[in-house]
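User: Fold this; tokens only.

Assistant: Input:
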Amino acid sequence: NYVNNIIYSKFKGFSMASVVAFGEIMLRLSPPSNLRFVQTNSFDARFGGGEANVSFALSNFGIDTSFVTKLPKNDIGYACINELRRYGVDVSNIVFGGDRIGIYFLEKGASQRGSKVIYDRANSSISQSSKEDFNWDKIFDNAKWFHLTGITPALGKNVADICIEACKKAKEKNITISLDLNYRKKLWTSEEANKTMSKLMPYIDICIANEEDAEKVFGIKAKDSNIIEGKLSNEGYKYVAKEIADRFKVKKVGIALRGSISASENLWSCMLYNGSEYFFSKEYLIKIVDRVGGGDSFSAGLIYSFLNGKDDREALEFAAAASCLKHSIEGDFNIVSVDEVMTVYNGDASGRIQR
């Protein structure tokens, strides 16, 4: 049904702009329900990863989207490609090579017990990739937008160099570039992240972050906020956004604001700074089914909105509503339609049954 919705939405006149995203997609293995790693006798298998999640959401919204990565030429790689193709993501720029797909194990938290992630992604296919694997002139043909995250350059210097090369080529072609800082302490240190991301930032038009990214990567801290206690200061995040914009000359800064009441219940809102004005979205109280991919859904919501000519306020509210809904979806991918997002956007967050 969702594939049919994608095809139908394109013929209804939605933007045919092409978005390219580059990064690692992984096999996700999770104990069923809220079982712990030490309890479970089985794992649910899905696919996910920051840039792939954005590609999926955009394709689901009717945007022509190409996901670029490197996968092993085996049945797991093929299964991954089939999952992306199932929802309309262009996989023609995925290259084959290497021996394995990266894996991450997710134990979902509940109440006061936080979620846990264990990575098994060393020597994955994309971490072994080289500049020769990707023809960016071909990949960016007719593209209008390029998206990447701070996770990908953390996979190794070779991958970071590919990211920089891709950004240079995108800039030559006047393609808008968005970057989600997405700091992962299990992949690199703050010092390593700062050194590499500082080289990427001059190419970025729109920077997206969460409560911790700016501090961990660039030492820019939101004043009067305590994410452990769930206390967020709007003035503190205005400061963070302005510092990022001023330091790196980016056009817009988007920040997802998560007030963690517990692992099961969060307050969720978002902000956007355009260099002169600050916008804050509605705040949602969410009961979490799966929080992974919430920030990616925010990124996808912004990209979709800007490609369809929405102003900054409209784009922010759409992205906040889309990312709010993601927390109700099992898995990394945000399987919601534009109409469902617009229902929340227009003020109906009741969750009442649709008959």
